[in-house]
Amino acid sequence: MLENSFSHIGIRGFRRLAELQAELRPLNVLIGANGVGKTSFLDAFALLAASARGAMNKELGEMGGLVGVLTNDRASGLALDLSMNVPSHSPVDYHLLLALSGASYMIGEETLSQQRHEEGPPSKNIASHGTDIKYFNADAKKWVQPTWEHSYAETSLSQVPKMFREPEDFRLKLSSSTFYHCLNVEPRAPVRLPQQMRPADLPGRQGEDLVSCLYSLRETQRDRFETIEDTLKTAFPGFERLDFPPVAAGMLGMTWKDRAFSKPVYAHQLSEGTLRFLWLTTLLQSPGLTAVTLIDEPEVSLHPEMLSILAELMREASQRTQLIVATHSDRLVRFLKPEEVAVMDLNEDGSAKMTWADQMDLGEWLAEYTLDEVWRLGRMGGRA
């Protein structure tokens, strides 16, 4: 288990996630039919991360505002809860309640707390109710209110004084979480073009730093770069190496050498699946992985035979980042373990629920079938 990893999330009133409580693990692969809440789960976590960065208003706006994400006919507000493990201590618990305010929203309640004694209520670091904002100063052992300009459209967590170590540690971890959607591989997409040379320890959400990241790894972390090339050789038997020729002042291209051809292939000539696999491999091997990495449908454009490699890449990466992935791929599920797979399904009232595969009674089925076959047979739910 990663230190200071998030252990539990509660989501109430977010689209189909009317009342969802879920355990979080190092590797969380969400499976299920369309419309059962997999992407909503990722979006809800991304909203929490944005709220810790001071970008909740912007993130909600892009989602259509609070009214656009509330569960139809069942919610007048949105509640988000998140717990973080702390070694040798009780978890840190965060609670955020957003309420409608005309066409906009208000932060109705926000707390950050930790149970420090066996008896008595939890100790709080943040206790905010509407415009009544309070932070606990542990050194002075007293509550303080902001003496600076405080934005009531953003969370108290995002504006916590950096000298308050415990809430700032929680904020930094949550705010770093990154959501990766399907990579754009159109002809003029950033991942296909020469890129400016700059320090980069991640390939970028749309591959805009893929070349810089790979080049930096080759020059500074050769073993990690060689792991990426070895992975490519496993997935593409003809692959030999990556090169980074300069194409202009401060600009690098990327070429792919295949033993079947005398001339290298440039990034703009690579197939969609090849580019996506290269980007995913680089991302999951990157030294800059954030505390939580969210990936929606990583299997897009990938040949089924590559999914076993992808599963191993995700498993290894989950030792360095908490990985939450949504997928529709039966074949990917084949290469996962029950404790890595969570099934999203619908209750009778149409709301979403989530069940870990290792908490289902699948022992006899798994003795005869692979995990993906058990899913296709309908024994895990999440099929319709």
Descriptive keywords:
384 residues; alpha+beta; Rossmann fold; 6-stranded mixed β-sheet; 11 helices; 20 strands; 27% helix
The major sheet is characterized as: 6 strands, antiparallel
- Contiguous low-pLDDT stretches (5 residues minimum) are none
CATH-derived architecture of the largest domain:
3-Layer(aba) Sandwich
Share of β-strand residues: 25-35%
Structural class: alpha+beta
CATH class category name of the largest domain:
Alpha Beta
Tell me the CATH topology of the largest domain. Answer: Rossmann fold
Count of helical stretches: 11
Give the number of domains.
Answer: 2
Helix percent band:
25-40%
Radius of gyration: 23 Å
Task: Describe the model.
With 384 residues, the protein is α+β, with helices and mostly antiparallel strands. It folds into 2 domains: 6-177 and 322-376, Rossmann fold (3-Layer(aba) Sandwich); 183-289, no CATH class. The protein is 27% helix and 27% strand. The chain is built from 11 helices and 20 strands. The chain has helices spanning 38-53, 56-62, 66-69, 165-175, 210-220, 222-235, 272-285, 307-317, 330-334, 363-366, 371-376, and strands spanning 6-12, 20-23, 27-31, 77-86, 89-101, 104-114, 123-129, 135-137, 142-144, 178-180, 195-196, 239-243, 246-248, 251-252, 255-258, 265-266, 292-296, 322-326, 341-346, 352-356. The protein has a 6-stranded antiparallel sheet with strand order 2-1-4-5-6-7, covered by helices on one side. A 6-stranded mixed sheet has the order 10-17-18-3-19-20. It has a 3-stranded antiparallel sheet with strand order 11-14-13, with helices on one face. Helix 7 (272-285) packs parallel to helix 8 (307-317). The radius of gyration is 23 Å and the shape is globular. The model has no long low-confidence stretch (mean pLDDT 94).
